[in-house]
Structure formats: C-alpha cells, structure tokens
Fold these 4 entries.
Entry 1:
Amino acid sequence: MGVALVTGAGRGIGLEVTRQLATAGHTVYLAARHLPSGAAAAQSMLDAGLDVRPIELDVTREEHRRAVAATIRHDHGLLDMLVNNAAIHYDTGNRATAPDWRTVTEALDTNPFGAWQVTLALLGLLRRSGRGRIVNVSSGAGSLVDMDAGRPAYRLSKVGLNALTRMWAAELRGDAILVNSVCPGWVETDMGGPGGRPVVEGAAGIVWAATLPDHGPTGGFFRDGQPVPW
C-alpha cells in the first residue's frame, strides 16, 4: 500500500478521494487549510479504522508546504501519490472582457501556482517512491476545445494546470512518475452546486489516476478513465 497526500481535502471531492484511497488501504494525508476542520472531516474515517492523517496545508503558504514535506519525510521517507485538488473561485457571472482582477489573481495563486509549488516541495519524496503519481484535478472548463464565455478566473487557472500536467509528464518520465489531469465532471459539491453527479462518481476517476499501474498513461487528460480533449 502507498502513501498519499490530497490537497483541499476537508470537503467535497477531496474528502471523497481521501475516503476511497484510505478504504483501499493507503495511508492518506488529508490536507486542509484549517487543521480543526480537517480533523473534523477525518473523524468518521478514523472511527472506521482508516489510516487518515489530517494535516494543515494552505497551498499558497510556503511554511505550510515545507512543514507538510518535513512531516511526510519524517514519517515515511517518500510519497507515492499527490492529488492536487485544492481550488477556489468558480466565478460564474464574470467575463473576461470585464474581469474581477482580485478573483483572477486569487484563483491563479491557488489553482495552478499552489499546485505547482506543492508539487515542487514534494517532488523529492515522489522521486524516492520509484512509482510516483501526480493527479491534477482539472475541469472541462479548462479545455480549449470547449472554451466559451464566462468563468474567466476558473477557466484560465485550469488551462494553466493542464499545461503543467503536460510539462511535468515530459520532465518526470525518466523518474517513473506518471502525471495526469482529471476532470471529475460536474459534481454536486459546495463549489459545483446542486444537480451534479454524486461525489463518489467524480472522485473515482481521480483515484483511478492516482493508482495507475506502472505501464499506465502519463501526460493525459481524463474523465472516468477515458481521454478527453485538451
């Protein structure tokens, strides 16, 4: 069994990804911006005997990233799976021709840049795994093929995250690290709102990418284990 870190795991998709990985027998660090809320979210899994470890991580804060890396290094010496799930600002109603610059800046700082910085902080541990997996939780809203008006902060942030997937996959191929983007689809969460698919279904595709076999794909964009256009 492996060691995983899931960012933005205090609720929604990240919490369900944590649950599914832990149920499969993995040790999972449940990363949340506020440790008390992360601990509360983990309690039912801990009560069930799952190896879930709440940890504080605001992906935009360097001291948090360093502390998380130090904890995992101390406890395990390696990391097998990193799920970059933390994201903010599904900015429905905004337009690229009249942007809210604060929202755009915050979305970029968290969604692609936060994932970038967390990944770099943990890259040495992923390399030590010998079979590391990086999953960037993306969205069809970041697909250029389906690009449309609206949600500029969110869309641009996911385009950037997809670009990082392609670059990391190429650069880390020699380290046996598989890197993929996954769109969970429209999921009924606090961010996605009502009417979407069950969170269990959306999380399953992320877990699939986090647990790919050694011959699995890298540098791809998937939904439910099937390729989707960039």
Entry 2:
Amino acid sequence: MPQTEVIAPLELIVNRTVNAPRERVFRAWTEAAELDNWFSPDPDYKVKSSVDLRVGGSYRIEMHKPDGQVFGAFGVYRQIVPPERLVFTWNGINCGDTVVEDTLVTVEFFEADDRTQVTLTHQNFQTPEMRGRHEHGWKGCFDHLESVLGSKN
C-alpha cells in the first residue's frame, strides 16, 4: 500500500519588540488612520485602508507604489481580544501578478515593561516562494511601524 506524505502547511512567524505600550501598538493595527501611516514594506508607498473592527467585519488595505502599481490585502476578522490578539484571514493581489488566497494571520501583543512584544504568525501559504515574499513584506511593515512609533529593536 502506498504511503502518503503529509506536508504541514507553510507558515511564517515574525517576532518584534516595539518601543510603545501594548494599547498603542494594538491601536496601530486596528484603526484605518493608523494603518495608513505605517502598513507597507516601504515608506514611499501610499496606504489607504478601511477597517470594520468586529468579529465577522472586514478590512481592506491598498499599498500604492510610486510607479502606480498597487498591492492589496483584504480579509475578515475572526477573533479580536483587545489589546492582546487579532486573528484575520488574508487574501490579496500583489502588483496584479500573484493571488494570495485563504491564508490566516494571528497577531499577539505581549507587555514587555513599557514596550510590546509582537508575534505575527501567517499560515497556509501555497508555496515557499509566497512565504518568502510575505516574510520580506512583513519585516518591512514592522520596520515601518517601528519608525512611525519611534521604536528601536
């Protein structure tokens, strides 16, 4: 009888310590005006977002590159525990050539004195390449968040 190899879904975990109180960092992740200030891997991108922060509510983030290309992400909130945890689906189109469907993001916020330890887990990537692109993107977003909040790691 042939054996079937079970391959675990591809996931990405990013940990960062942000030099701001947990409530402030949580707000940066959950308010559209806040997301517009930092949610992009490059500070030259212009961000436009919308947030309906409730379980079952949706979000949409558009990152406009200076050359006119647009990265888009959208999904639905599955769990919201202020200021500790966010869980949401992640779908999107990156510059019109890569479709990302049905991935899941969990963001956890832990108090660390007057700073916040953030652990992001992004699950269910379809390919290692897609995981790698998102690793680059998330690290850039965290760099930008730290810059906006005046943080040092």
Entry 3:
Amino acid sequence: MNRKILAFSVAAITIAAMLLTVGSGVVLAQVVASATGSGQFHEFPGPNGYRTFTFSAQTDSSGITTGVTQGYSRSVPLSWQGTLNCLDVEGNVATMSGVVTDVIPNPNALGILPGFFLVFQVIDNGEGKNSPPDLVSLTFFEATPPFPCLQSVDGIFATTPIENGNVQVHK
C-alpha cells in the first residue's frame, strides 16, 4: 500500500512540475546536432609519434553550441584543453572550433597560448568491425579567429584514420 501511495505521489509531483513549466512559457532547448569522440593516431613515425584526443560538442535548438576538447601530442610534447563554441555538421562530417583554455607546453611548444583559437574536423564512418576507420584532422591553432566553423574551411580536412577510438556525429 505504501509503495502505491509513493508511486502516485511521485507521478503527481512530476505532472504538476510539467504543468507549471508549460504554463510558465519556459521552453527547454533540444539538442539538434552533436559530435563526440576520442582516440589516437600517428602524427609522426616512431614510439613517440602518437596524438591522443577527446571531444564532445552539441548545438541546441536555440543555436547555442557548447563543448570541450583536449589533446596530447607526444612528439612535441604538448597538451591542450579548450572549450568548443561552434559545431557544423554536414552528413557524417563535423567541424568544430573554440578557444584554448589551458596549455602544458615544453619550452619549444609552438607558441600556443590560452586564448588562441582552435579548429578541427572529424568524419564518422559508421560502427562495427566492417566499417572503415573514422577520420580526424590535425587541430589547428591561431592567435586571431581565422575562420568560421564551416565545412568549406580551406585546409581543414579529416584524412587521418583514428586508431583505438571512435567518433559519433549526429544531426
């Protein structure tokens, strides 16, 4: 008997909250595009030639993109983190850009600093062992915003196969 009363109470509270939200005119934004992934790839031959990466980005129905990314290039070595504020999804291709928030460089770390802009691209080639590997571009860094987050950006092409990882792109 107590379980039935508890279940009824929870259901009543949930319905009341929904009615208050609808009645207040609050509209919750829905995710309309997303891209997530992680993995590694060889950027240079040899045991220190790996680059690892992870990212997650989503755009909601109001056009707001949020996300994060991080990477580590063992060959430099250079580690970075960033926030993503732009996601462009065309089919199975996602181009993302944002701002570097943290860098852990060596003394010759290419001069990349927090506040720099970053952009990269991924291609989701499907799931399962019979699918070709997903692809990723290098991450490009600039001191000033050089390009919008669009598929047509010159020189940003996801052509490197991802090893030991996966990318998922949805729209």
Entry 4:
Amino acid sequence: MMRRLLEQDARLSSYFQLGERPGALRHPVRFLAVILAHSGDSWFWLPGLGLVWLLGDESWKHRAEVMAAGVAITAVMVFLIKFSVRRRRPEGTWGRIYRNADPHSFPSGHAARAVMLAVLAQFLGPNWLGVALLIWAPLVGLARMLLGVHYLSDILAGMALGLVMGLAVIQLF
C-alpha cells in the first residue's frame, strides 16, 4: 500500500517538473520558480532577519528574534525527520547544492520554513507582511516541486510541519 502511494506521488510530481524538460531553461515559469525556490533558503532568511534586527525599531527587533528562533527550531525538526525517514530526492540535475548537501527530500525544509514564517507573520504583524508571506509560502513549495528537488508529498508534509511549528513558536514566545 505504502509503495503504491509513493509511486503515485512520484508519477504525479514528475508530471509537474519543469527542470528536466527540453527547453525548460528558458521558460519564464522556470525562471520564476528558481527565484521562489531560493527565496525560502535559510541562508537568505537568517542574515536578512539579522539586518532587520540591527536596523529596526523594537517591534521589528521582536519580529526578527521570533522569526529567527522559528527558522532555527524548524530546521532542527526538519533535520530530525529527514534523517529518520531518509527518502531520496527525485532524480534530476537542478539544485545540485541541495542534492549534495542534503540528499533527503521528506519533508521539504523550504516548505516548512515558508509556512512557519507565514504563520508567525499572521500573529506578529503587520498585516501587509502576513498577507505577503501567506501568498509567498505555498509558491515556495510549488517551486521546489516544479524544479524537481521534492515530491508533492514532501511539500505537503513540509507545509503541515510549518503550520505546527509556527503555532508552537507563537506559544513559546
């Protein structure tokens, strides 16, 4: 039963992948997907939140602290799950840095991080940030699947984990 579900997941996910198709390198959707996929990187968020903390007033410092803690805590949870499950990433060539640094795909850390940040923004405000991250978060996960570094189930599990982590971080802080 589980093998059949994983096979269906792989088939459905490969249907949507742009990364390995002929001519896809010049496709505008692929270009946007690359930008969105990288926008969820922790190496982008942590320095960015550090900059917000340095330059912001007290309310922005608080947001940056809570979000940075959320990024760190979520990364630990994703790491623990990935190394327990050990599901290999889909075959492909895009995202070599991800494939080499982390060969495991389940759950998507990018999807988890994006949804966790969106949840935090809903609670921390301001409203425009909450709306922007609510729109952005699912696009990050979709981009990761389109580029072939995750299966659909990786994205859905990452998003569910991000929701749980966002709510947990709100309770902690």
